[in-house]
Amino acid sequence: GTWSSLVLPAVTIGVILTATNVRLVRTQMLDTLSAQYVMVARAKGLSEWSVVYKHALRNAAISIITFLGLQFGNLIGGLVIIELVFNWPGMGTLSIEAISQRDYPLLQATVSILAIMIVAVNLAVDLVYGLIDPRIRVT
Predict the structure, then answer these.
(1) What are the b/e assignments for 64-89, b being 16+ CB within 10 Å?
(2) Which of 11, 4, 3 has its CA nearest to residue 78?
(3) How does pLDDT run across 72-103, given as a tens digit for each residue?
(4) Are 110 and 98 in contact (CB under 8 A)?
(5) Helix, coil or strand: residue 136
(6) Which of 28, 76, 110, 131 is the most exposed place for a label (fewest CB within 10 A)?
(7) Is 90 exposed, middle or buried (0-12, 13-18, 19+ CB in 10 A)?
(8) Exposed/middle/buried for 110, CB within 10 Å: 0-12, 13-18, 19+?
(9) What is the CA radius of gyration of the chain?
(10) pLDDT tens-digit profile of 11-35?
């Protein structure tokens, strides 16, 4: 189909994941903005943009990125249902068809591929930690 056929599935997945992400970002930013180093940065006369984005958001990003990486597994599980509901061909539909036809090698292959994707995302999250926080480095 066209791009318009992507709107409803994308909104469905987005609405599911957005609420928890927004609450986490809000909570982490409120905790970080009340920290002493943020008060010191404000006392030095730094602009509010600099305080929020360079100091607070950078320190709050570690837990936010961790949560986003953990949500990837939930996203994969949700996409299986979205593919079924919207009749999209994909790994989820292939897995469900393999279950219904009792094609165990195909089911093992799809589960293995999805597991490799989850492991790759977790590895990427660990590597991003080093980019965000210079105290975290691979030795």
Answers:
(1) bbbebbebbeeebebbbebbeeeeee
(2) 11
(3) 888 888 888 888 888 888 888 899 999 999 99
(4) yes
(5) coil
(6) 131
(7) middle
(8) buried
(9) 20
(10) 888 888 888 899 999 999 999 999 9
